[in-house]
Amino acid sequence: MSEDPWLVVGLGNPGPRYAGNRHNIGAMVVEAMAASAGATLREHKAGRAWAAEVRLGTLPGGLPGPRAVLARPMTYMNVSGGPVSGLAKFYKVPVEQVIVVHDELDIEPGQVRLKRGGGEGGHNGLRSISQSLGSRDYLRVRLGIGRPPGRQDPADYVLSDFPARDRTEVELLIGDAEDAVVHLAQRGLEATQQRFHVR
């Protein structure tokens, strides 16, 4: 296992107006992970982000899991790259150990999918991160929110809140995403894909 820390970034927009939006599911995951670890996300001096240093789970034998920095940019989604790059440089995190947690229109609601690299699929947050890191070879934990119904504009859809009737599903998705991040850092991409992609 690498001694380098992991950087786990949850994407979203700042402020109460956006807090419950579908586009903020990545930020919700990081906030839940911090709470589970008994940590508090605080403003970080290296960039425009809230961050906390934690351990990801527990290894066999009761040893603490790998070191990680949980973070969510304080910026709007489409300029997430600066904060991510700043934290990666500060903590000396190699791009291969950057994990970005984000919403994905082209995945069924409630599903978790993982990959390394590839395109951004029109996701402005990912595009900004790729540009700032100078690489697309970071890991993505992609959380399905599905396509908008009827002719609703995708931009309006992602910037709308999850309906109250979906609360249980959203909580389950956040829990699965937390598990996927920990599994990814402990056991690698292929093993984590095998576990979560069969669901």
From TrEMBL:
Species, as recorded: Serinicoccus hydrothermalis
The protein's assembly and partners: Monomer.
Free-text function comment from the UniProt entry: Catalyzes the release of premature peptidyl moieties from peptidyl-tRNA molecules trapped in stalled 50S ribosomal subunits, and thus maintains levels of free tRNAs and 50S ribosomes.
Compartmental location: Cytoplasm
One GO CC term on file: cytoplasm
Lineage: Bacteria, Bacillati, Actinomycetota, Actinomycetes, Micrococcales
Residue positions of the active site: 23
InterPro entries: Pept_tRNA_hydro, Pept_tRNA_hydro_CS, Pept_tRNA_hydro_sf
Family in the record: Belongs to the PTH family.
Keywords tagged on the record: Cytoplasm, Hydrolase, RNA-binding, tRNA-binding
PROSITE patterns: PEPT_TRNA_HYDROL_1, PEPT_TRNA_HYDROL_2
Keyword RNA-binding: yes
This protein's name: Peptidyl-tRNA hydrolase
Site (Stabilizes the basic form of H active site to accept a proton): 103
UniProt-listed Gene3D superfamilies: Peptidyl-tRNA hydrolase (3.40.50.1470)
Positions bound to tRNA: 18, 76, 78, 124
Reactions catalysed according to its record: an N-acyl-L-alpha-aminoacyl-tRNA + H2O = an N-acyl-L-amino acid + a tRNA + H(+)
GO BP annotation list: protein quality control for misfolded or incompletely synthesized proteins; rescue of stalled ribosome
